[in-house]
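[recover] target loaded
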């Protein structure tokens, strides 16, 4: 009997929908279980007691921050914000775009820094004060990029700033301008240097690929008295 000719391979149809890009890493249940079994490397500070929380919120009102209290966030993965606040303005003159969820301490530090440092620096270099910042991430339940340690974003304790917007409409995107734009390079360099102190972690372009297009500011508790700035 003559052998059957080999079957021609079936033509594959293209997928009905284009594949979606991978999402940002989130803590898996397995990782979370392991993390809960292990002794934490550094205890997180206890949530502010009610009087201190009220005092913090009263301070925000004095600073002109526009906020709304939200229910506590807590889940088995370890993400938790005891007293989350939805922020829409960081002062009467500085907007936050889009609005973001943060804890009170970070909001207070960010409001003061933008008002006392960033806005005067913008006025000095560009002749116009700060009117808004574009944030790329605030509260989100996830691990750090490339690590199993939970991110400060998961505690409402970190923010990514992608753009500064001045009152006259000038925009300064956070990126490495090199020598192509001395004014923007000076402004971003001065802001970055000044942030190392008011914030416990400061990262930005040049630190690593994940922070090439934004500043990362957080209030991570550390054993060291010195902030980590890169």
């Amino acid at each position: 009997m003559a052998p059957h000719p080999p079957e021609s391979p079936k033509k594959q149809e293209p997928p009905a929908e284009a594949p979606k890009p991978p999402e940002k890493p989130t803590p898996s249940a397995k990782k979370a279980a392991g993390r809960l079994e292990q002794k934490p490397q550094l205890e997180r500070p206890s949530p502010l007691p009610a009087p201190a929380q009220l005092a913090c919120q009263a301070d925000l009102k004095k600073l002109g921050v526009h906020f709304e209290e939200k229910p506590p966030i807590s889940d088995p993965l370890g993400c938790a914000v005891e007293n989350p606040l939805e922020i829409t303005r960081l002062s009467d003159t500085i907007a936050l775009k889009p609005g973001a969820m943060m804890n009170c301490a970070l909001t207070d530090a960010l409001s003061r820094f933008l008002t006392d440092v960033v806005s005067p620096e913008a006025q000095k270099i560009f002749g116009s004060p700060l009117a808004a910042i574009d944030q790329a991430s605030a509260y989100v339940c996830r691990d750090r990029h490339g690590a199993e340690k939970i991110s400060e974003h998961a505690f409402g304790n970190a923010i990514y700033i992608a753009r500064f917007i001045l009152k006259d409409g000038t925009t300064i995107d956070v990126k490495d301008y090199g020598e192509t734009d001395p004014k923007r390079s000076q402004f971003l360099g001065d802001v970055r240097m000044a942030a190392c102190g008011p914030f416990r972690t400061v990262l930005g372009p040049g630190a690593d690929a994940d922070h090439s297009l934004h500043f990362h500011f957080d209030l991570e508790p550390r054993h060291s008295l010195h902030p980590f700035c890169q």
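[recover] notes: Confidence is low (pLDDT under 50) at residues 9-23, 32-42.
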